[in-house]
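SAMPLE LOG
Freezer: B-3
Tube label: C17
Construct: single chain, 124 aa
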Amino acid sequence: ALREHPKARALSDLAEEGGAWTVALLRLAPILPFTPTNAVLGLTGMRLRDLALGTFLGMAPGALLYAWAGSLVPSAEALEEGESLVPGPLVWGLLAASIVAAVVIGIAAARRLRRATPEGRPPR
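STRUCTURE (predicted):
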């Protein structure tokens, strides 16, 4: 059933051919919930090794960022009192880096999808 729809077929082919790189891009995208993504990837012929490697690579930056942010918290009381734990310029820098990363990921994903479809056009 997945292969009958051009867009689904293109995404399936992209997942199978792109392997770990495709999964890493999907995991980095903050707007894609993991449960539906997992279900769609499970319907493709992707190898488990590629899925695991891509998941690790795509989730590592966020996990490291959360661990680092947690290390800045001196105590639970400081959080309850609303103390500012991160310097302002750092927050703005991280926000800018996140926006740039989201744009780069979006462009890369669109290019890969265009290459995966006939005539280089995204399927409708």
